[in-house]
Design a protein that fits this description.
The structure holds three protein chains of three kinds. Chain B has a domain of 214 residues. Helices cover 73% and strands 4% of the residues of chain B. In chain B, helix 2 runs antiparallel to helix 11. By secondary structure, chain C is α/β, with parallel strands linked by helices. Chain C has two domains: 207 residues, 3-Layer(aba) Sandwich (Rossmann fold); 145 residues, Response regulator (Rossmann fold, 3-Layer(aba) Sandwich). Chain C contains 13 helices and 14 strands. In chain C, helix 3 runs parallel beside helix 4 and helix 8 runs parallel beside helix 9. Classes of the chains: A mainly alpha, B mainly alpha, C alpha/beta. Chains A and B meet through helix 8, helix 13, helix 15 and helix 16 of A and helix 4, helix 5, helix 8, helix 10 and helix 12 of B.
Chain lengths: 381, 316, 387
Amino acid sequence: MSDVKVDKPAAVPADKKNWRSSGGVRGWFGRQHWAVRTVLIIVFAVLAYLLPYAGDIPVLGPQIITEGIDWPSALFNMSYYVLLALGLNVVVGFAGLLDLGYVGFFAVGAYTVALLTSPDSILKTEWGWLAAVPVALAVAMVSGLILGWPTLRLRGDYLAIVTLGFAEIIRIFATSSETLRGDRGFADIPHPPGSYSDGKPIFGVADATPYYWLGLSVIILVILGVRNLDRSRVGRSWLAIREDEEAAEIMGVRTIKYKLWAFAIGAFIGGLGGVMFAGQQGFMNSQTFILQFSILVLAGVVMGGSGNIFGAILGGALISYIPDRLRGIEDPIFHTDLFGFRFAIFGAIIILIMIFRPQGLIPSRRRAMELKDREKEVAPQ
Amino acid sequence: MNFSGLIQDFGPLTITGLAQGAIIALFALGYTLVYGVLRLINFAHSEVFLLGSYACLIVWGFFGLDQNSATPNVFSVIGLLLLGLMAAIVISGLTALGVELVAYRPLRRRNAPPLAFLITAIGASLFISETVGVITKRNIKAVPPLIRPADVFVIGNMHVTNLQILIIVLALVMMFVLDRFINRSRLGRGIRAVAQNPDSAALMGVNKSRVIALVFLLGGLMAGIAAVMYDLKIGVTRFDAGFLLGIEAFTAAVLGGIGNLRGALLGGLLLGVLQNYAASLFGTQWLHAASFVLLVLILLVRPTGLLGESLGRARA
Amino acid sequence: MRQVLARAIGGLAVIGLVAGAAACNSSSSSDDSASGNCGYKLAYFGALTGSSANLGVNIEQGFELAINQYNDKKGSTCIEVAKFDSQGEPAVAPGVARNLVADKKILGIVGPPFSGESEAADPIFEEAGIPTITPSATRVSLAANGWKTFHRAVANDDAQGPAAATYIKDTLKAQKVFVADDQSAYGAGLADIVKQKLGSAVAGTDKTEADGKQTDFSAVVQKVVSSGATVLFYGGYYQNAGLIRKQLTAANWKGTLVGGDGMKDAGLAKASGNAAAVGTIVTCPCSPPEKSGGTFVADYKAKWNVDAGTYSDVAFDAANLLLAGIDAGNTTPEKMNTYLSTANYKGIANTYKFTSTGELDPSLIKVWAFKFDATGNQVADAEIPAA
């Protein structure tokens, strides 16, 4: 019984409270005055907006930025990966539904924009990018409901394989149907609107920085929305479903309804990622929406810390950053370019992170506690 | 929709589908065994298959065989086949054990959440297939023509070849042996015990770690055999061959009822045949879509697959 | 906390290791040689990794061979090779392209190899004013975008398809032809034109998945056999084509496989085995390298220890064309672009003269048919007359 005593906060004298037992960084942050917190958040956000200029920091800067790929473009890539991770975190982290085909919603968002805006589309509507956004998001959300309705009755791993199947069906449909043009793709998808005073468009082709800023702003909005949801009745229902679906149902949580909510919101955010992608890209075809993409995003969410918004952000950013960072680097032994190895190295990094931090890099506090309980329960091997 | 084509080619499509399905079924056993015992999708199983498919080619390479060699005489063919199978089995088995040791065991010690296992499996899969990709420069490796396909018998327009018979018979035999092993042997009883209730099994004196290692090994052996058959049937292998077929094998395992050995056989054969029918009916580009549509439909009617899950309870 | 710190430091160490390796790499550009127009770079932009890397590597090696030969002649590293790996994916291409245009020493680009990534990356090259010569992106509409920096060193799909159809009708005299493609922009485009030209001789059609996405072609093979066709036209790349050829032979089909330049690669015979590949016909809007009398085939083999593949020769020509521009004193991208619009260069695969939209001068396009022989080589068969 002695170790139980140590765990009890009351048993620890107040002056000997260590950093971790008082909640670490997050605990410290929570204890600050609201004004301090606001200032800190604003400083953090401003720093995030200044990231494209990270290369100008002496000494440290060149280590951070990517070499084989333009740094603002790499940042933009990170931003849509982060969006996807945030959305998938709602489905997997909050509601505990294992979705292996999340890229399907990304595809739905991107393709709706392409169909409505590109001159290659059979619709011939040729809308502006902005006008297509609400439609694309609505379609993505509806597709989440359509996919969710029949499949959510399945549990755990069966749900995983069915979602994987749906994503593959979407990919094959995109490749093989005439309407979605397959590998030929859609050209001349318009960029987001807006121009500088000298008439040059803000969102041009040569500089990716404005796209990154747009992506970052969308991310901030999504964080605010998801955070509020998580702390609302919906969030508590998700928690109950995740912990024990049967118990939740008996306690009066309408599980199907809230699972559908999770799917629809996840699809909405995934669609948002697709919309951003299409707007920056200008051209897209079925090559992008491969299965490995879904799997990578899932790896990011779990690696970062499933159930924690900031964990998902970190994970999403890392899955895009690590391979990009490994581009254009020479290995010290054979002097060949490391970019060929980047996914192999990435695979090894994933294994290492999960072995040393199975709860993720920034775990959800609740999840971390669950894990501690589980570690105690390990049966004799 | 080409109904007349399907009816006309029904026989040949069935036999080629069965051969492909037999390979898928052998491959699917690995997923099903591990899932039955650990409730874990062993994502890295596709790479177990991949390394097996290279191992036999390397052995045949030692004998100076490549895609342009003449077919050797019957006795050397049998010898080479056995050697190739042995190499593939050993390498696949070792790979499966290695993955268990590196990617899963450390997590199991800490009783990590199930998702963590899935992610290390993805990491291991990426690592192995990408390393193979870099080493082979992402080129294909071709298979020597050990068995020249020749008709054994013909019914209507259905030509049944020696290779097809070999694949189907070998798959059925292996399946039978495995089924016997799980249901009749002492080790098999241990596997079933752990599948039913790991903690009780441990209390009853079953060495859980050893059982888990055994399960991975068995899955690896079957994948090794599947890999050799795949090489002979398709004629080339490549760094992503495991991933491609792995998705199908996993689908087959779920279709039949994951964790259920006979389910994997049924699922594999069914998938192989129906993919061929769908390709004939709608066009080859819809082949994979058809298998997923089928899966979704079956899971909606029977949520645990055709034969139900559980390695322990369903008497395999 | 200490444990956390230790892990954090461990993590940093990993990043540091990576970054340290990066530092070794950071531009160690050679001293600007005094002699002539040296110190500049030519870039290859295209897939070096990823599922379509093999085609990209063919092109890159042809490109690099030309520059190495040039440097050997000069006796110094006069022109540097810069490689940019787009993975052949439109989603990756823009970021890599922006990285390329940031390097002001680059005078010209060979690539992008694929039409999809061209659509995504070429607007960036256009804005930066760096001329591109693509050795293999054959989509017709690429030239209609009004890009001034776009040049295509091969004939587009419209030139090759009719020639292939002519060959099937006139030389092979096939009554029944089965047409299949891999749904790639290239393969489907080519197959559509062939279908249209062959008209009633088409005995059946099918579509497969792309290279690396499908390996079992039982259903296609069965359709070909049942259709009674004596010729299969496959619009796609060599890897799938080799597999299909092998599985057709295994099913005892004795007809001829015909395809476009995407199948003109030793890889086809490697996948199918030489015995099965014999007699396979590939059309190519290029002339046989031996016609030019150069030593390209032997040089390539000596340098890379593999046979020259699809488009290696065109990439070699494109690089030499850019090098000729540098020799003529065009040391800015703008001057190089102007030079390309007037150039008339005879290479090993073709004579290159561009129209105002960047296409090859139609009067110079020759389509040849090549036949696989018993050793897996593609031997020039005949020049196909323009239809």
